[in-house]
Amino acid sequence: MAGIVLQHVMKTYGNMYAVNDVSFTVNDGEFVALVGPSGCGKTTTLNLIAGLLPMSGGDISIGNRVVNDLDPKDRDIAMVFQNYALYPQKSVYKNLAFPLQMRKLPKEEIDRKVQDAAKLLDITHLLERKPRELSGGQQQRVALGRALVRDPAVFLMDEPLSNLDAKLRVQMRSEIKRFHHNLNATVVYVTHDQLEAVTMADKMAVMNGGLLQQYDTPANVFSNPVNTFVASFVGSPAMSLIPLEAAGNSLRSPEGWELPLSPANVRKAAGSTTKDIVLGARHSTLKLHKSAVPGSVPGKVYTVEPTGDVTFAQVFINGAVVNISLAPSVVIAPDEMVWIEFDQDRMHLFDGATTMALQAA
Amino acid sequence: MTTITESAVRRRNGPDWWRWTGRLFLVLLLGFTVMPMVWMIITSLKTGFAAMQYPPQWWPAEPTLQNYTRLLDPSGRIGQDFLHYFWNSLWVSTITTILAVVVAVPAAYAFSRFRFPGRNFLFFAVLLRNMFPAVVFLVPLFILMKALGLVNTHGSLILTYLTFGLPLAIWLLKGFYDNIPIQLEQAARIDGATRFQAFIYIVMPLSTPGIIATSIYSFIGAWNEYIYAYTFLTKQSQMTLPVGIQRFFSENATDWPGLMAATFIMSVPVVVLFLVLQKYFVRALTEGAVKH
Amino acid sequence: MSSVQGQAIFRDVPGPAPKQASLGQRMYTSRFDYLYIAPALLVMLIVIAYPVYYTIELSFYKTPASLSLADKTFTGIDNYRTVLTSAIFWKVTWQTIIWTVLSTLFSFLLGLGAALALHRAFIGRALLRGLLLIPWVVSAVAASYVWKWLYHSDFGAIGALLNQIGLTKGPVNFIDNSTTSLYALIVVNVWKEFSFAMIMLMAGLQTVPESLLRAAQVDGASAWQRFWHVTLPQLQGVSTVTILLLVVQNFNSFIIPFIMTGGGPVGSTQIWITHIYELAFLRQNWGVGAAYAVLLFLIMMVLGYFYVRALTRGDDKRAGA
Question: Which residues from chain C sit within 8 angstroms of residue B259, using beta carbons?
Answer without folding.
Answer: 145, 149
